[in-house]
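Example 3.2
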Amino acid sequence: MNKQRIPGVATGRLTAEEYSANFSDIHPPLSAHEALVEAQRCYFCHDAPCMTACPTSIDVPLFIRQIATRNAKGAAHTIFKQNIVGGMCARVCPTETLCEEACVRNEAEEKPVRIGQLQRYATDVLMESGEQKFSRAAATGKKVAVVGAGPAGLACAHRLSMHGHDVTIFEAKEKAGGLNEYGLAAYKTPGDFAQREIDYILGIGGIEVRSGVALGKNLSLDDLTKNHDAVFLGLGMGGVNALGIEGEDLNGVADAIDYIADLRQTADKAKLPVGRRVVVIGGGMTAVDIAVQTKRLGAEEVSMVYRRGREQLKASSYEQELAQTSGVQIRLWAAPVRIVGEGGKVTGVEFEYQGDGGGTGETFTLAADQVFKAIGQKFLPADIGDSGITLKGGRIGVDEERRTSVAKIWAGGDCVDGGEDLTVASVEDGKLAAESIHRTLTA
């Protein structure tokens, strides 16, 4: 490791070899032989609790059996029929709390079948072959607008295209993908996988993507409904929660999601500035992602501080373990009361110890030259203007078919009430909305 001690926030803390190693694939893919051996561990349960635990209801026993019979492409087709973003989900889904937690091998205190790794193996084989397993139905002449090219929007567009509808996706950012492209840790999806998966999804045809177009700026929801037969909103969460404390505007204080996006889009990690002493405020997946990545960028001390206890942490047990084994210190029961600085630059964060009833009055200060806020995102109602869409819980209200209160408009993903902040859940929303739109347009 680079032994040079670089003070403050700086670039180039590590050698090129260290950056490469630190941001290589955290889960190297299974070989064909490893996948075959792992697939043979499955009991192929008739009641398939793993399938029930999957938000998109992938037939897990079937695709594993197909791998076991050396039919990886068939396995991928089984996966993609339910989850067209199955390649990314295999990499980033918290399988340890979904399908793998439900695996019956856990009951015998054995390791569960590595379902996520098997899903990745199968989908990679098919995608690398370039073979398309899906085709469009006869053209219906119907036009659908999808706003947002994240997992929900992509899943909705693909299913609509399968039914023969023409789809235009309007995306505010330069690239499609949403959080899959901009919001996930770089070591989870190396090699530009997000864009390769999008190319595969769009390969079905009938889908146009228009980038740099955002609602309320150069796109009107009223115009969309006038010029299309249906509209799907997959807007995601456009805002970031503020701490609301003194010192939040100091130089060196940043939103974790913005920094992660910069990291994902930076080809040369050595050019990304990182502090020597980093404090991350929050306890979810994003907090872990930013904490681990700053450590891998060369930060010497990284502390992740959460206001409640370990049982309330939103990060999964696996993510917590990853943080700790990466050298991140997790501090619990402490809430930030102010960010301190000198000369306009952050120098530390003052926290108050918390109890079950709130603050205890006792405080401590962590030294820091870089502070990241990772306390969640929020939906921005301004994105939909005065459309008349009913909000619920601060997000878009939808029914079971993902219909909004306004005719011709559906919505799904993180922007809707009940959104779970999971890629796989957003995919399911997009799929359900697409089927509802199709039924409506062909009734």
